[in-house]
């Protein structure tokens, strides 16, 4: 038995409108009355019509597909950002195609070319990579709008939506200082990370502002894996037992550092400032993850809502698709302190 494929003509007949009207409803274009739009959408739902995006692209030049390139979807910040991005796009009838360029970003150009070949209407470039040469020019050649999200190294003339990394670091450091800490170390990130450079800038500037010493040996690199962070934190505290607080580059680093502190024979909290014998280390990180509330004590974070970064990036990209002549924007989202028991 052959099952008849539902077509746009079937939808038009059931809704008692023209095929052109159905096409306008599907593309979100034209002036369609709410009553007619409701009738068409009801017919689509009743018939189970599925839009053929490739055909739509050939007819109208838009595929309804948005591309997203990020390094690793497993990173909590980018998973949350992707959710926010998808929410807004789905509200506007768009779907998201995701490509991972790898932790070092080596597959960036391959991902970029692949998404262009899929006929995307626009693209979001998330996270930092070492080289973005040629991306803007290639996107312009193809007429594909580009927005950078959560990138410290934006492209000149391209819209950027990102957290305020320097202010987040100032907030975290000042919070610790005002709680009595003067021996504060920074853990995590790699030396070639611009996000880390911004956070270290805020960290060091705040130490200087309060007349506290900056010690290069207390700025420790490590990757984002919890095991690496645990080892780095343990080694640092054994070598410099007078450290009373750690600022951690990422949520995963903070979680790893939690176990490193315990393995060094210390405990986590904010009561050990006045007495070395309390043996406590305050712990604060950037970002936020559900696991932060499972530790004892729960972890304190400075967070710039990843979901809001995604939502703002999607909104800006949709505006850019509608009007390519808009002046580029640099949207910087303010951080929030989430106080828990670790600091």
From TrEMBL:
Residues 6-60 form the HTH lacI-type domain. It holds the Pfam family Peripla_BP_1. SMART domains: HTH_LACI. Keywords: DNA-binding, Repressor, Transcription, Transcription regulation. GO terms for molecular function: DNA-binding transcription factor activity; transcription cis-regulatory region binding. CDD domains: HTH_LacI (cd01392). It comes from the Bacteria. This is Transcriptional regulator.
């Amino acid at each position: 038995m052959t099952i008849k494929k539902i077509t746009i003509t079937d939808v038009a007949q059931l809704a008692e409108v023209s095929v052109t009207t159905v096409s306008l409803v599907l593309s979100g274009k034209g002036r369609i009355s709410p009553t007619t739009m409701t009738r068409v959408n009801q017919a689509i739902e009743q018939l189970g019509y599925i839009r053929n995006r490739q055909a739509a692209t050939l007819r109208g030049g838009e595929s309804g597909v948005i591309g997203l390139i990020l390094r690793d979807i497993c990173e909590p910040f980018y998973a949350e950002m992707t959710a926010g991005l998808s929410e807004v796009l789905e509200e506007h009838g768009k779907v998201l195609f995701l490509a991972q360029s790898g932790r070092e970003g080596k597959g960036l150009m391959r991902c970029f070319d692949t998404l262009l070949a899929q006929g995307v209407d626009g693209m979001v470039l998330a996270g930092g990579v070492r080289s973005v040469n040629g991306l803007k020019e290639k996107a312009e050649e193809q007429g594909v709008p580009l927005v950078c999200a959560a990138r410290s190294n934006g492209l000149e003339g391209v819209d950027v939506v990102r957290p305020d990394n320097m202010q987040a670091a100032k907030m975290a450091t000042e919070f610790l200082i005002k709680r009595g800490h003067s021996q504060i170390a920074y853990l995590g990130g790699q030396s070639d990370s611009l996000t880390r450079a911004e956070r270290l800038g805020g960290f060091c500037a705040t130490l200087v502002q309060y007349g506290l010493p900056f010690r290069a040996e207390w700025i420790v690199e490590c990757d984002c894996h919890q095991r690496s962070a645990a080892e780095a934190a343990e080694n640092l505290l054994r070598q410099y037992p007078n450290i009373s607080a750690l600022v951690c580059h990422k949520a995963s680093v903070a979680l790893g550092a939690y176990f490193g502190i315990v393995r060094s024979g210390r405990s986590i909290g904010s009561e050990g400032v006045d007495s070395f014998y309390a043996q406590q280390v305050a712990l604060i990180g950037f970002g936020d993850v559900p696991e932060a509330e499972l530790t004892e004590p729960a972890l304190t974070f400075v967070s710039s809502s990843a979901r809001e970064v995604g939502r703002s990036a999607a909104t800006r990209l949709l505006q850019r698709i509608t009007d390519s002549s808009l002046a580029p924007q640099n949207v910087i989202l303010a951080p929030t302190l989430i106080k828990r028991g670790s600091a």
